[in-house]
From TrEMBL:
PROSITE patterns: HTH_LYSR. Pfam families: HTH_1 (PF00126), LysR_substrate (PF03466). Belongs to the LysR transcriptional regulatory family. It comes from the Bacteria. CDD domains: PBP2_GcdR_TrpI_HvrB_AmpR_like. The keyword DNA-binding applies. This is LysR family transcriptional regulator. The lineage of its organism: Bacteria, Pseudomonadati, Pseudomonadota, Gammaproteobacteria, Pseudomonadales. InterPro entries: LysR-type_TF_proteobact-type, LysR_HTH_N, LysR_subst-bd, WH-like_DNA-bd_sf, WH_DNA-bd_sf.
């Protein structure tokens, strides 16, 4: 009996083959693997040369598995699953998860809730990465992201709605000491308008005062929503912010809602995570916990 596995191709090529067979697209496979499209194509060409058999049909729009490729992909996926499960059994179950969020989402929504998460799940090490950039999940070791915008956020990624965006105008009660709150477009121009990077004021004023003219109020601009909110708390002007971000400040009396209007935007907050064959129990736990927080927002 011969020793070893003399007919076994390189394991890395088999891993690349499994991903390509699942996506039937070199670009999507490259994004999942964190390598270039050319590197993926080279691995597949090398594997086909090693096996001396064609695994894929190159079609005008993407790829198709040959009969041999289809049968081989089923067997390889089963084999890689067995290797993955055997490896997991050797290691203690990971108890940490990294979630990437925007700085404003972190400071105004997530951080106030982390104490409750720690109390409910003391064995989980939840790591928060605050950045405006949509993290590269493999390179940055990110498991889950919360991002504001509209799908899709990238190929090879799953998205799930977390929270709709409802914007309200807020200000410190001190801003209105000795003068009434604005009830007209002209009255609004007497107060500084605090902007963030999303610049929702034109849309908000158009919805609130459909036939208004050009704004003439003093403007202050910030690159983070949280900074505009803090400026509003400091009495510097009127800010627009997600209702979820300022709910606690309103309840505490640090802010008041200036107008009754809640502007619902097309963009929203989404959960984003890599599209893999299997989600870890810890990822499911954190996703479910985040979604459970929404009714209280």
């Amino acid at each position: 009996m011969s020793e070893g596995f003399p007919a076994l191709p390189p394991l890395n090529a088999l891993r690349v083959f499994e991903v390509v067979a699942r996506h039937l697209n070199f670009r999507l496979a490259a994004e999942e693997l964190g390598v270039t499209q050319a590197a993926v194509a080279q691995q597949i060409r090398g594997l086909e040369a090693t096996l001396n058999i064609r695994l894929f049909d190159r079609l005008p729009r993407g790829l198709g598995l040959t009969d041999a490729g289809l049968a081989y992909s089923t067997s390889i996926r089963t084999a890689l699953t067995m290797i993955d499960e055997a490896t997991r059994l050797l290691k203690p179950v990971s108890s940490h998860l990294t979630v990437s969020v925007t700085p404003s989402f972190a400071s105004k929504w997530l951080i106030p809730r982390l104490g409750a998460f720690a109390d409910a799940h003391p064995d989980v090490d939840l790591r928060v990465l605050a950045t405006d950039r949509l993290s590269h999940f493999q390179t940055d070791a990110v498991d889950l992201a919360v991002r504001y915008g509209s799908p899709a956020f990238g190929a090879g990624l799953n998205t799930e709605l977390l929270m709709e965006q409802r914007v309200i105008a807020v200000a410190s009660p001190r801003l209105f000491d000795g003068r009434p709150r604005p009830t007209s477009f002209a009255g609004l121009q007497d107060f500084p308008m605090l902007h963030d990077a999303h610049n929702v004021w034109p849309e908000f004023t158009a919805a609130l005062f459909p036939h208004h003219g050009q704004p003439t109020a003093k403007n202050m601009r910030f690159n983070q929503t949280s900074l505009a909110i803090e400026a509003a708390i400091g009495g510097q002007g009127i800010a627009l912010a997600s209702q979820a971000f300022v709910k606690d400040d309103i309840a505490a009396g640090r802010l008041v809602q200036v107008f009754a209007l809640q502007l619902r935007l097309d963009k929203a907050f989404y959960l984003v995570w890599p599209r893999k064959a299997r989600q870890s129990p810890l990822l499911l736990l954190v996703k479910d916990w985040l979604k459970q927080q929404i009714p209280s927002s």
